[in-house]
Amino acid sequence: PRTMDIDTIIFNDQIMDEDVWKRVFVALPVLDVYPNFVDPISKTSLREIAKELENSAETEVVQTLPGFFPG
User: How far is CA 34 from CA 8, 17, 58, 65, in A?
Assistant: First the structure.
């Protein structure tokens, strides 16, 4: 069996670590489950943050092939 690592990113509408929004691999999945989230400190929507990350020259978004992950 594999070990699963789960990080708490948002709890009670509070962000646990502001640096998480610097990572596209965190922001995009959170956007999937919490599409209307707005950062309470910067007042920026997660959708805007994700768009900025996707457009960043430092970010490469990789799409998986259909059927790559079972289930």
Answer: 13, 16, 24, 24
**Would the pTM count as exceeding 0.70?**
no
Cβ-proximal residues to 71 (8 Å cutoff; 6+ apart), any chain: none
Give the Cα-Cα-Cα angle 58, 39, 22 (nearest 5 degrees).
20
Query: What count of other Cβ atoms lies within 10 Å of the Cβ of residue 46?
Result: 20
pLDDT of residue 46: 87
Q: C-alpha dihedral over 16, 38, 20, 7, to 10 degrees?
A: 50
